[in-house]
Amino acid sequence: QQQVKQSPQSLIVQKGGISIINCAYENTAFDYFPWYQQFPGKGPALLIAIRPDVSEKKEGRFTISFNKSAKQFSLHIMDSQPGDSATYFCAASLVSGAQKLVFGQGTRLTINP
Amino acid sequence: GAGVSQSPSNKVTEKGKDVELRCDPISGHTALYWYRQRLGQGLEFLIYFQGNSAPDKSGLPSDRFSAERTGESVSTLTIQRTQQEDSAVYLCASSPPGQGGSYEQYFGPGTRLTVT
């Protein structure tokens, strides 16, 4: 009930291409869906987040697509750059109470120059 | 401004020893979280503090794990009688009150714990 499943585990994309990472959740009560970016030796940093009242959110080259009925959401990175190479985590939580994040397993993204 | 800091950055300990991990949250952040990240895995929630109280300890894996927070600031995560399966990166995060819809958690760099 609390799981968030993320795929793929690893992804290699050519510079300038589109990177797509997918997540699925089980708990229909979740109402906050962030994506975090983590570089080696660093803590995760918030990249972009969405609430379930919208189906898409775009910030620069990063877009979240959200499908409430399918309980799925995805991160799209347009015009992927070598500097985007990192591990990406999707997560879900409730905006009330503890707001503890339930994380996916992570996707190691490599952008080839 | 200063971000979340954690110390030590690395800790190697022998099985059976106790360890203390420290987190200094961003000043003014009332919420504080501890997560654990095993190698190649996502982060697992351990405990949540609001001020100095811990209303949600549901992620602590056993009674060998405990945490406290004092002065609505520094938090210490203690692992007693460490086991090899405790080896992981322990991450602390904090968030301010009333984020106006942001809900962002700000993470520290983590403490890498290795139990030999």
Brief characterization of the structure:
Chain A has no helices and 11 strands.
Walk me through the structure:
- The complex is a heterodimer of chains A (113) and B (116).
- By secondary structure, chain A is mostly beta strands.
- Chain A has strands at 4-7, 10-14, 19-25, 33-38, 45-50, 56-59, 62-67, 72-77, 86-92, 102-103, 107-112.
- In chain A, the strands form 2 sheets. In chain A, strands 2, 4, 5, 9, 10 and 11 form a 6-stranded mixed sheet that branches. Chain A has a 5-stranded antiparallel sheet with strand order 1-3-8-7-6, with no helix packed on it.
- In chain A, strand 6 (56-59) and strand 7 form a beta hairpin.
- Chain B is mostly beta strands and 116 residues long.
- Chain B has no helices and 11 strands.
- In chain B, the strands form 2 sheets. In chain B, strands 2, 4, 5, 6, 9, 10 and 11 form a 7-stranded mixed sheet that branches. Chain B has a 4-stranded antiparallel sheet with strand order 1-3-8-7, with no helix packed on it.
- Chain B is globular and about 40 Å long.
- At the A-B interface, strand 5 and strand 10 of A face strand 4, strand 5, strand 9 and strand 10 of B.
State Rg of chain B. 14 Å
Order of helices and strands of chain B: EEEEEEEEEEE
Low-confidence stretches of chain A: none
Q: Percent helix among the residues of chain B? A: under 10%
Number of helices of chain A: 0
Strand portion of chain A, in percent?
over 45%
Strand content of chain B: over 45%
Helix content of chain A: under 10%
Number of strands of chain B: 11
Separation of termini of chain A? Answer: 40 Å
Beta strand count of chain A: 11
Q: Describe the sheet with the most strands of chain A.
A: 6 strands, mixed
3D shape of chain B: globular
**Morphology call of chain A:** globular
Output the number of helix runs of chain B. Answer: 0
* Average pLDDT number of chain B: 93
Average pLDDT level of chain A: 95
Largest interface: A-B, 26 and 27 residues
